[in-house]
Amino acid sequence: MSERTLILVKPDAVRRGLTGEVIRRIEAKGFAITRLEQRHISRDIAEQHYAEHADKPFYAGLVDFITSGPLVAMIVEGEGAVAGMRQLMGATNPLEAAPGSIRGDYATSIGENLVHGSDSIDNGEREIGLFFPDA
Ligand code: CMP
């Protein structure tokens, strides 16, 4: 079934010049990027995006980090796109992410792990609504 997922190229990846590499891997896999925009998000949007982590000890740092510079937000679509993108990104902790995945190849820090991808179809639709309300 064709699905939509929200992908963020986080500020660490933008700073490191990895935006093109992330886009290349998504396109090479065969998913479609149907919206794409670089923007510097507000704390309000960041807090809504990460609301499910509000009670976690790393939450304040997470909001500081995701608002620390521009990110690139995308809607990615295709057959099994939610799970497929999570496979392409690798495990949340880059030290546990398989080589060949984006985090496995380019990151070491769980806080600065280069990319975000929705973890379910429902969360994907919620996150798309937050970043691309007209999509
Ligand atoms: P993301 O997929 O964007 O969703 C939640 C983020 O919280 C996750 O990626 C990590 O970057 C971050 N995160 C998860 N666990 C930790 C942790 N123990 N310490 C710092 N950040 C974390």
TrEMBL record:
Annotated Gene Ontology cellular component terms: cytoplasm
Q: Which Gene3D superfamilies match?
A: Nucleoside diphosphate kinase-like domain
Q: Which cofactor does it need?
A: Mg(2+)
Against PROSITE patterns, the record matches this protein to: NDPK, NDPK_LIKE
Residue span(s) of domain Nucleoside diphosphate kinase-like: 2-135
Provide the function of this protein: Major role in the synthesis of nucleoside triphosphates other than ATP. The ATP gamma phosphate is transferred to the NDP beta phosphate via a ping-pong mechanism, using a phosphorylated active-site intermediate.
Q: What is this protein called?
A: Nucleoside diphosphate kinase
The primary gene name is ndk
